[in-house]
Amino acid sequence: MRRSDLAWNDWEAISRFLADQVVCRIAIHDDPFPYVLAQSYRFIDGVFLLHCSRFGRMAGLIRRNPHVTIEIDHLVALLKAPKGQNTSFEYYSVLARCCVDLSEDLEAVRRQQYEVLEKYRPERDYTPIDDFAPAQIMTFRCNVMQMSAKKRILADGQYSPPGQPQAPYLRYPFPPPAALSSLPPGAFDPNRFKA
């Protein structure tokens, strides 16, 4: 990483960040350009859990080459300083290079879908997964081979980076992002569907 001052090395904080975010971007080998798309995911024990249709482009590409890159980011605020080149952002960003293990076994697909539901439906207020859905999708475990993380979070009035003319940044925060922590408590009410 060129900017060592932006390196984010707090694994506990990175794990919390990955658990809270709801969308990752996954880059898959294709020719002549990488195929990149947004996916919901769960990160647990150093593995990203994802799924897709068994019959689509994504499935075909991953079957051909199981090496993927996953990126998750969160923009926090716009930063402005008097000099134009000092316009920037506060952010968190994680980049993971992974090798994929695919599964089309119905019971393995069902088990992984329940694992992912623990992130999005911890209240467990849903009916069991039927037999139709697992037959339509495949699951994949993206085993992390290499991961790096960056963050840039400034204190109010903090000055520009080392080597730049001294000028304080002004912060303009973005509204809360799409993250589990930004949902109201009622989103996880286990009694919501009860009469």
Automatic annotation (TrEMBL):
<dbReference type="InterPro" id="IPR012349">
    <property type="entry name" value="Split_barrel_FMN-bd"/>
</dbReference>
<keyword id="KW-0614">Plasmid</keyword>
<dbReference type="Pfam" id="PF12900">
    <property type="entry name" value="Pyridox_ox_2"/>
</dbReference>
<dbReference type="InterPro" id="IPR024747">
    <property type="entry name" value="Pyridox_Oxase-rel"/>
</dbReference>
<protein>
    <submittedName>
        <fullName>Pyridoxamine 5'-phosphate oxidase family protein</fullName>
    </submittedName>
</protein>
